[in-house]
Amino acid sequence: MRVLRHVIVTAAALFLMLGLPFLNSDYYKRLRGGTDAVSSASTALDKPSGEYVVFINRSLHTNSANLAAWEGFFAEGRDEELYTVFEDLSCTVADNDAAGLEMAKSFQSILPENQMKVSTENVMLMLSKAENGRFDVIVMSKEIADMFGAERIAAMTDADMLTVKQAEEEEA
After folding, report:
1. Domain map of the chain by residue range?
2. Residue ranges in the chain modelled with pLDDT below 70
């Protein structure tokens, strides 16, 4: 009876120390077909056509290689360099900018899950915060950016302003 109790206690302790961490590991999730910490979104969204403006706050991205990778990602759609970038982004979009939100969501769909958080904010509040350097990334449609004079953000802060032009895909 003592031996049986010892075996059960030992097995339970081993399961708690080894089994539970294994069941929560990315390796186990991949074996079962689930997502892991670096899996991308299930479906990459098509980028909407039009012209967009992206502001990146350089003061928050001090590693020049990471900054160059993010600039390439937003401006040219290159995502091959991002596999070595482990920093997360907080992207802000004006709440009245449907096209900007659609573009931000298309960027988000390419990145690994939870690497980019997209939130909307009143355009005047967003630009006021941006003038004081309180932003990470801002995505706006060119029309909204022109309407509210958002170009001043690049001049007033340590920000890169990228223009993204997405041509409309022709149907065959």
Report:
1. 1-32, 50-166
2. 33-46, 78-84, 168-172
